[in-house]
Amino acid sequence: MSELKNRIDFVYLFDVQDGNPNGDPDAGNLPRVDAETGMGLVTDVCIKRKVRNYVQVCKECAPGFDIFIKEKSVLNNSIDKSYEEESVKNAKDDGDKRNAAREIMCHRYFDVRTFGAVMTTGKNAGQVRGPIQLTFARSVEPIMSSEHSITRVAVTTEKESKNQSGDNHTMGRKSTVPYGLYLCHGFISANLAKQTGFSEEDLSIFWDALKNMFDVDRSASRGLMSARKLIVFKHASELGNAPANKLFDLVKVEKIGDLVARSFNDYTVTVNREQLPENVNIEEIL
Description:
This protein is α+β, with helices and mostly antiparallel strands. The chain is built from nine helices and 14 strands. Helix 1 crosses helix 8.
């Protein structure tokens, strides 16, 4: 696998229509929102979950592409299993064993070498700081959450089925965002990639995940979610050639007209290539 040698920063745009992109358990699972500005939020944890789900489906947990943080996974069992390898058993002391186990976990699990992990809850496999870090995604404009009443015609008990009054239909609530366009910033460190073994092949899979992850993770509650733009800034060096914030400022997302946006076509996305710093290349993958 080829080594990653360049720092990368990227801008990722996705949208939601008639769905809840990321419910807040502290607010009755309403769509997350910045209370002061009304901007919608999607956490980095939510985005990473979708990347993990895509890789798990795409690679089918093939050697080197298993997922550490997955549903019903017992993390300590996965950590302890690394201590069964010969390289760990033959290590001289606890520090060497930890480092050997850490290397095994990075090699075995895609999400460990990509996003990092704390692996000290069982047998100590150390901590990994992942080369890919993401910000919260924030909506371009304030969102308006809509709440809908829902019913069901089936019942759960015989007693309910004999109720002739017609009022035994269970009532529930469903919250959605009519439309929201969200923007996320990402950072990829070539230096940390060298430490975890994150490769160019892994990066290609990550890009594929951002482009296609919504299509393998459909849910009625999330409505229609779609990847819209993936703008990548690739530096000529390992440590980078320009501050990330200056690169992100080159990307402008603006609404067309004064009407309420209800689709991606209501926005324009432009990139100021004329002010792109030297030794930084830009690529629009999506």
